[in-house]
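Let us practice reading a record.
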Amino acid sequence: MPSTSTSPLDSALVGRAIRQARTATGVTQAMLAERLGVSAAYINKLETGRANPTVGMLARVARALDSRLLVEFRSEPTPTAAGAVSLLRG
């Protein structure tokens, strides 16, 4: 069975994408948490890479921020793969 764990780099990249999309829209962690029906502490964990969201949660975050979710699969992960997960406005 495939592992569901992610590397710290993967979690950090996802968290960075969430934070960038949230701040670009002027939404606070508390506001996003309320929109999603989760705690602000959970949003903080997502953004700092200490929680791994499901694909469903990523889609909910994108909708809550009026953004599109873009996931790019790469054959070789690199430390500079900051664009691997993006939330795009519009």
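A brief commentary: The two ends are 36 Å apart (CA to CA).
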